[in-house]
Protein 1
Amino acid sequence: MGAPVNTTLPLDNGWCSERLERVFADCFADKLHTRLRGGADEPLYQPAQQQGGCHVLYYRADYFASALHEVAHWCIAGAERRLQVDFGYWYAPDGRSTAEQLAFESVESKPQALEWYFARACGYRFRVSVDNLDGVSGALSELSGFRRQVCEQALCWQREGLPRRAAEFYHALCREFDTPATPDALNFTVAGLD
């Protein structure tokens, strides 16, 4: 294992979500008939409406982080999930109860850990999101626990390897953004999520 590489850079106007769309298309448009598209009011995965059609993964507006996050969900979803709208997952909007928030966090640690890898591949700053600004009080302590979950998952993938589609996208992002760090050379710590 090589020395840890810090590929996190300050936010900058150089990150254009259309670059992510192009990289995603190069990786997955032909072989998995899936496109990444911005401009949505809310993220949504829409499976093809007909046999041989194109699946579309929508992300919010032109937000770079939203695109990375939605791709992370897609990379984790299995073949059956990718045949369902939004992968068949429930979503409760802002203002979730404590129980709803814990359920949300239990399924969000994996995509957010994967988003962290993708952000590193782009040299983009990753920020953990509990996606519940109007929700339960005591958010700081809960965020701390969620950060730990995200970090533990990132370290798990560092030991065991990224899911296949995620690894392909990660390496394509490294080429696009000229950040040649291999996943095992990245440094993941809870403190790095502050």
Note: Residues 69 and 115 are 5 Å apart (CA to CA).
Protein 2
Amino acid sequence: MKMAVWLTTLNILLAVVLAAAAVYLFVLVVRALKRYIATKEVRDEKQAAKRTLGETLKEYRTRRRMTQEFEAESLGVSRQTVSKWENGSADPSTTNLLALAKLYGVPAEELIRGVEANPAAGKAERGAE
């Protein structure tokens, strides 16, 4: 009889410990979710800032209502080269980047600010110009 009481007490104690652990894990998950939800603005801001050079160039070109052909003629490159810059398969040379900045009327730093690197484009650019 004493053994049965002792086992029952042990089972109850084990159930209480497991319930406490479950509650603690639930509290941790809720805190993590709250923190994650609170950083939505920061994540959106980072995502907006994280864009490719091609997206940036296209944005500046379309904002100024220029065509790829006009931009290409102004820089002395082909329209296909401008298209490759914008779709990310190639990056403009430093000289062309400076010329683009001048054409857009912005500092060159403005074009590359917040741009994520595209290591594959460096290889493709050699054949693009």
Note: The helical segments are 2-38, 40-49, 53-63, 68-75, 79-87, 94-104, 108-112, 121-128.
Protein 3
Amino acid sequence: MIKVNNISYTIDGKNILSNINLNIIRNKITVITGKNGSGKSSLIKIINKIIIPNKGTINSEYSESIPMLFQKPISLNKSLEDNFLLLSKLKKSKVNKFYFNLFKLNKLKKRKFQNLSEGEKQKVFISRLMSYEQDLIILDEPNQNLDLESEKIFFTSLSKVKNKTILLSLHNMSLVKKFADYVIVLDSGKIVFNDISSKFF
């Protein structure tokens, strides 16, 4: 589905990623993990063609970047419901409210987005992305600001998704162990592990 070939990326002379080679396997959950500053977010953005590497190529079925969950997603100064519907309106797609209902957001839908807690906002961002019908799902630290119950609900449901390729970055190693099919570990911008999860844990 996606093949990354010898990618390197620098900012102001600093190496962010060096000689990255990997494959994203169709219909599997691939997790990129590593310490803060290891290059996880940069790698995900490069894979999704949001930023351009200094060196290397990406062979992908996708000619353009696709919707993804950023660590700081775009929000509108409107209601929760308006923010949830933003992506479907931009993409003129049908709305799948499974995650909206899973997180019980309907009771909050008329509240101003800025008045929500950080955890409630994150649920909206996740629900918004997951409402868009796509066969590749990209999530950068999706459990950020989620309480433990919501985190469990989301990842359990994500693991049951069929016929979709899921790429995400995570810090929480217990989640990586429980849900990842493939694990990629970054350290100082270099891959130090890239294989099936059972070989890592």
Note: The longest helix spans residues 118-130.
